[in-house]
Structures are given as C-alpha cells and as structure tokens.
C-alpha cells in the first residue's frame, strides 16, 4: 500500500526557511512516511498525547529539533503545522493547540470538497 502526504502552505513556507541539511532530513522522513505510512514509529513519528489523530514527524539536525504536526485521513498525511522544538512543554502545548484548530478547519474543508 502506498501513502501520500499533503503540506499546507504555512508548513511548506516554514520548511523553505530551514537549513539545507535539515531540509534533506525532512525530505528523507517524508519519503519514509510515504513508504511505511501508519507503521512508521519512533524516532521518526510520535503520537501527540491528549489529542485525537495528531502526530508529529520528528526530523532533526544537530541541535535543531524540528516538529511537523499532521493527521491521517485514509492514506494521506495532512501536515498542518511545524515549529522548532525548544524543549518547553508549555510552548509545545501551545503549538499543539494551534495544530488542532488547523486540523478541524482543514477537515471541514476536506469534507465539503468530498460532497
């Protein structure tokens, strides 16, 4: 089975701002996700606790911990938010809440397009 991913404009633009080395790592992680789908686990993907169907792709380069938040809909991973993790749980929770709002909005739009 083949999987695909979709990057929202904000995630795409944020990725472009990252270093060449980190971009190469992001590309590799996305390829792994497309290949393995739901079966891809840590250290590449982690489920975000306390949030339904929210995951983070976890590419890193040296001391930069980059997080790409996504949700699954069928065989497509929708990337809705990204940020550089600074190891602060409160900041991460804020980022997860932003992602949850974007997820609900995108799911609503996907639902309308499917009708």
Instruction: Tell me the series of helices and strands, N- to C-terminal.
Output: EHHEEEEEH
Query: What name is given to the CATH topology?
Result: YaeB-like fold
Multimeric status of the protein: single chain
The total of beta strands comes to: 6
The gross shape turns out to be globular
Total domain modules: 1
CATH architecture field: 2-Layer Sandwich
Largest sheet: 6 strands, mixed
Features:
single chain; 115 residues; 28% strand; 3 helices; alpha+beta; 6 strands; six-stranded mixed β-sheet; YaeB-like fold
Write the layout of secondary structure elements.
Layout: E1 4-7, H1 9-16, H2 20-36, E2 45-47, E3 55-57, E4 60-61, E5 64-73, E6 76-85, H3 89-114
Parallel strand pairs: 1-6
Antiparallel strand pairs: 2-3, 3-5, 4-5, 5-6
Structural summary, described in words:
There is one protein chain. The longest helix has 26 residues, at 89-114. The chain contains 3 helices and 6 strands. It has a single domain (4-114), classed as 2-Layer Sandwich (YaeB-like fold), CATH 3.30.2310. Strands 1, 2, 3, 4, 5 and 6 form a 6-stranded mixed β-sheet that branches. The chain has helices at 9-16, 20-36, 89-114, and strands at residues 4-7, 45-47, 55-57, 60-61, 64-73, 76-85. The chain is of the alpha+beta class. It is globular, with a radius of gyration of 14 Å.
Characterize this entry briefly.
This protein has 115 residues and is α+β, with helices and mostly antiparallel strands.
